[in-house]
Amino acid sequence: MNGEHAWKPFRETVDAPMERARAWKEQTGGKVIGHLLPDVPEEIIHAAGALPTAVEGAGTQGTQAQAHIPGYTCSHAMGAIEQGMRHDLDILDGMIIPYVCDTTRNLFHIWNHCFPNKSNEFLRLPKRLDYPGAAEYLKAEFSRLADSLCNITGRPRDDEDLAASIALYDRSRAALRNAYRKQREQPAVWTSERVQTLFKSAAKAPREDHLRWMEALPWDEQSQDAMQRVPIYVRGKVWDPPGILDLFDKIGLLVVEDEMTTGYRGVATDAGSDGDPIDVLVRRHLSLTPYTGYHQQPDKLVSGFLERVQGSGAQGVIFLNPKFCEAAGFDTPDFQKALENAGIPSLVLESSSRGVSLEQIRVRVEAFREMIAEDLP
Ligand code: SF4
């Protein structure tokens, strides 16, 4: 496979994820289970014999969803309903919506009302991850989810199946971390846009196939990078508006680390194989970089964020806050203040493909790049 050709299955999956799911379903006769980001344990869906496929609402345009959900809802939730209303998600047999904020809690009820013939699940993630009872609670919730999914697929629940699925996902996470490392080392070939296509497609394609495609990538290809790139750290949810990473690549910003649910945050931590497989997934969940919307001691939240930024070597931070996301809005001022005290410049972008154009963002991002590039040696 030549270099360019090797990237093709990832792009095809991102462009038409439900076609990929349909082909899998026709081939295997299995169930396809959608899940809304973040933090639904895909391994549990996989071990039940189903295909997990992430549904990202951001970037979806349309007006049908507004008959069911207020107009001041984030693009992620609004776009998911829109995709459902226009039958883009008909191939799904079920949908899992995690509890991360009031929007997702309400979204589950709206979803159930709009799509009553699907097997829909609300995953009640703990809001306080540092409470002593969080692990026990989450274990019960993940076990309930595993039972429910096995009821949907008809496959008996088996710890060995789950352990095998966890091992597969850990291998995939390692390969994706490797790609991210290449993005830092060879950004002219392993552009942020390309690497995030790998990440995005991983959450939509059969993971065994995705891992095989990744092995065929041109890992040894060398490149000269003529551009001086400025390292940045990004915090947000999903890469919205579409094209934002291409913009970073073109103007010479290099994402050295991010906390996006579809980005590095999702692969930074492996689950491992030490003990009961549900316990393994619980430990992984509790050790993830806290998502906006989870509650933690404010000082611990801020100091942890600052440490990650300083450890990344970034010259500046971009907050890619989803428009109408209250949770992100609450966190940001404290983070910005801590960055300012540490002498690290930051830029807050309220992003959404609904009403915020890439051109509006471009001007601000270019100005930010110029400002932080002055600090480069
Ligand atoms: S946390 Fe924010 S972006 Fe995520 S679903 Fe809730 S409102 Fe939307």
Topology of helices and strands:
Elements: H1 3-6, H2 8-15, H3 17-28, E1 32-36, H4 42-47, E2 51-55, H5 75-85, E3 94-98, H6 102-114, E4 119-123, H7 134-153, H8 159-185, H9 192-202, H10 207-215, E5 230-236, H11 244-251, E6 253-258, H12 277-287, H13 298-312, E7 316-322, H14 326-341, E8 346-351, H15 358-373
Parallel strand pairs: 1-2, 1-3, 3-4, 5-6, 5-7, 7-8
The structure holds iron/sulfur cluster (SF4).
Iron/sulfur cluster (SF4) binds at residues 74, 76-77, 100-101, 103-104, 237, 292-293, 322, 325, 327-328.
What do you see in this structure?
The protein has 377 residues and is of the alpha/beta class. The protein has a domain at 3-160: Rossmann fold (3-Layer(aba) Sandwich), CATH 3.40.50.11890. Helices cover 50% and strands 12% of the residues. The protein contains 15 helices and 8 strands. The protein has helices at residues 3-6, 8-15, 17-28, 42-47, 75-85, 102-114, 134-153, 159-185, 192-202, 207-215, 244-251, 277-287, 298-312, 326-341, 358-373, and strands spanning 32-36, 51-55, 94-98, 119-123, 230-236, 253-258, 316-322, 346-351. A 4-stranded parallel beta sheet has the order 2-1-3-4, with helices on both faces. Strands 6-5-7-8 form a 4-stranded parallel beta sheet, with helices on both faces. Strand 7 (316-322), helix 14 (326-341) and strand 8 (346-351) form a beta-alpha-beta unit. The radius of gyration is 20 Å and the shape is globular. The protein starts with a helix and ends with a helix. The mean pLDDT is 93. Iron/sulfur cluster binds at residues 74, 76-77, 100-101, 103-104, 237, 292-293, 322, 325, 327-328. The site of iron/sulfur cluster (SF4) has 14 residues, from helix 5, helix 6 and helix 14.
